[in-house]
Every structure is written in C-alpha cells, then in structure tokens.
Specification:
single chain; alpha/beta; 11 strands; about 40% helix; disordered N terminus
Length: about 425
C-alpha cells in the first residue's frame, strides 16, 4: 500500500536547481566502490523518485516528493507504522535509496531550505531519469494497446466473491453483508474449506462455473493464536484441508499480532508460527488492522485476480480451473482418510520403507498405538519386526529388512 507515503505536502517553493553534484561535493557521501553504471529496477523506489523529480522539474521537499513518487513505486516509500517493532521482522522503507544510492552516485542533490531539505536532479540524474521515463512511457503504451481477440470473450463473465455463511464481523453481523457495503459483488454460501474464495460466473448469474486461484482463511489475531495453542489440533486440520483443495492459500489476520492475547504476551512464539506458515507451509499471510481493512484488501485482490484470469483464453482456462464440486470431493476424500491409511503414510516416510512394507505392518498393527504397544512388550525389540517375535512379511513373502525394523522400533518405542 502507498497510503503511508501520501502524507501532507512539504515545502513546494521553486528553488534554483544545482547544475551538478559538484556543488555538494563538500558534504556529499563518497560514491560506491563499484564502477558499474547504476540503473534502478522498473518501478522500484529509486526509479519512482528519479521520475518524480524529472516531472516536477524543480526541487522538492521530502513530503512532496514522497507524494509524487508513491504511485510510480511498487513498494512503500515509507516504513509502515506499527504498534510495536516486530524484532527480527522490521518494516522496510524505500526512501533510504536516496541517501544510500542516489546521492552517493551523484544523481540527486540535497540542499537546505530553511528548516527543510529539498532534493533535485543533477545533470547525470536528469539524463538517467529521462531514460527511465521513456521506459515507463513505452510500458504504459503497451498497457493501453488493444486487448487480444480472446479478451472480448470474457465480457460474458464476471468475478464474484464467495464468503462462507458462518463468517461474522464484530461478533454478530454477517461478514458478507459488511463486505458488500464496500462495493464488492459478493455471495454468501456454504464453503467446504476456507472462508473466502472467488467464483467466475456468467453475467447475470450467481452460480460459479469455476474458481479463481486463491483460497483464504480469515482469522482475528485472537482466534488464530488460540487455535495454534489449542491441543485439539484444529489449526493443523484447517491447514491440511486448505492444502488438499489444490488452490494457492492465504491467511488474512485482523488485529495487532503483537498485542497481549488472552493474557499471553509470547510474541516470539507468534512470530515463529507465522514464519512457519509463510516459509514452510507456503501460505501467503496478510496483516490488516480491522475488518474494514480486510474489505479493502479483498477489493484489491478481486481486481488483481480478474486481471490475471482474463489474459488467458477462456476455453483453456475453464478446462483446467477447479470447481466447487471438485474442491468438495478433494476435501471429503481428505476427511475420510482413515487412521489405518494415515498410519501407512507415516510409515512410508521412514528411510528404507516402502508401500508394501507399510502395508504389511498396518495389516498386523492397524494403528500407531498398536505398533508401539507391541514393540514395548517385545523382548527382542530391535529385531522383532525383522524375524523375531513380531515378524511380518511383505505381500511378496520377503521379510522386513533388519535396518528398517530397527529404525521403526526406535521411532515408535524409543
């Protein structure tokens, strides 16, 4: 979001533009050791600041420059405000590119005007900014070019937000009704997994033909961390079911994750849980302060998803996109996964194990508890499954390997 960069305007009075960086040589930082020409990435912070100064054609105060550059940058130019610094997860600021790169390389000059610093392009900076401006204009021209022939076929379809009917906001109100008040086309219905997804419907219909590639679980910070410490395993079941749906998954977390929740202030444990969600599980995690911010986020995601979908040919997209029915079948299959099948899947994760070895073991010991109790009672525990008192045979008639039997005994019985 660029809202934090759109603050009150700074001093915008016109001042003479320095002819080059030489006029500031007495106070400028030494340039970088690398001799490679600097060229900022497209729509990066440095890219946005250089073009904003070129368009202004006059020195600009920091606030004025931030406001002009924000729409041109993909990343926030100012650090986002937070209730408490999140330790090893600080918020980034794109503005630092000025002092770290643009000034040392002699592309931007800084002068003092009263109580404020003002910034302007040097001769070298103006030349680079003009090249970047030409690049931006070419990109904008391509964006305005006629859409491909198949794009008009999407005019017969629309994207609507699907919200589970059990979702509530502020304890009582329907979340779907609250979201609709923000101008989003939404349908409240029963979802087998997740709280929010998107459906592609024919114009005038409310029945989704296929689903857009995103599934969201919405949680308040209080609810999320309560489920994490809940010994019933609800948090893990929800994650597993979302992954079985076959769609990219995300969490929206409402509220201050660094505040005291249910009398607990274990900030490190919460950060670890969120890191596991994002880094290990592959979930996208969105942090928002309240339900109204969630609605604004959903509005942005709706636009982005529709743009992503409509670049493809409808016939090929509908041929591969999941439906509510296919998601329901996947989830029901995952829920019907028996203890015996889960036990076999666990055994197959052990080194040197295989499907036939796991099948032979679960035929004799259907649950992990059965296998553990048997091994604990065996006098020859290390070799019991290989050829001892608990010997099992594969379907082919071969016995379990001695090393595999020993590993299983150590894993289940210690």
């Amino acid at each position: 979001s660029s809202d934090a960069a759109r603050c009150a305007a700074g001093n915008g009075s016109a001042l003479p533009i320095p002819r080059s960086a030489d006029s500031l040589s007495a106070t400028a930082r030494p340039g970088p050791s690398s001799s490679r020409p600097y060229r900022p990435e497209f729509r990066s912070s440095g890219f946005a600041i250089l073009i904003a100064l070129l368009r202004a054609d006059a020195p600009m105060g920091k606030r004025e420059l931030l406001r002009a550059a924000a729409p041109l940058s993909r990343a926030p130019l100012e650090a986002q405000p937070r209730a408490r610094d999140a330790g090893p997860f600080p918020t980034a600021s794109g503005w630092s590119v000025v002092s770290r790169t643009l000034e040392p390389r002699g592309l931007v000059s800084r002068t003092r005007h009263g109580r404020f610093d003002v910034f302007a392009l040097t001769v070298e900076g103006r030349a680079l900014a003009q090249e970047l401006s030409d690049q931006l204009q070419a990109w904008e021209s391509r964006q305005r070019s006629p859409r491909p022939a198949h794009a008009t076929a999407w005019n017969a379809y629309q994207l609507i937000l699907l919200v589970d009917h059990r979702e509530r906001v502020r304890g009582r109100e329907s979340f779907a009704t609250d979201v609709a008040a923000h101008g989003i086309d939404v349908r409240e219905m029963h979802l087998d997994v997740g709280d929010i997804c998107w459906g592609v419907c024919e114009v005038g219909s409310r029945d989704p033909i296929a689903l857009a590639p995103l599934l969201i679980e919405r949680k308040t910070a209080n609810d999320l961390f309560s489920t994490i410490i809940d010994k019933s395993g609800r948090f893990h079941r929800q994650r597993h079911q979302m992954r079985t749906a076959g769609l990219p998954c995300a969490y929206i977390i409402e509220g201050d994750i660094d505040g005291t929740i249910n009398g607990r202030s274990d900030f490190g444990a919460r950060r670890t849980a969120l890191c596991e969600l994002e880094c290990h599980e592959g979930f996208q995690v969105f942090h928002v302060p309240h339900a109204d911010a969630t609605a604004q986020l959903l509005l942005q995601l709706t636009s982005a998803l529709w743009k992503q979908i409509t670049v493809k040919d409808p016939r090929s997209w509908f041929g591969t996109a999941p439906t509510l029915e296919s998601i329901r079948e996947r989830v029901q299959k995952a829920r019907s996964f028996t203890t015996k099948a889960l036990h076999a899947a666990m055994l197959q994760q052990i080194r040197r194990s295989s499907a036939d070895a796991a099948a032979a073991i679960v035929d004799e010991f259907p649950t992990p508890v059965d296998l553990r109790d048997a091994l604990l009672g065996a006098h020859d525990r290390d070799v019991a499954l290989h050829g001892g008192s608990l010997a099992v045979q594969r379907a082919s008639g071969r016995a379990l390997g001695q090393e595999l039997a020993r590993t299983i005994a150590k894993f289940y019985a210690g």
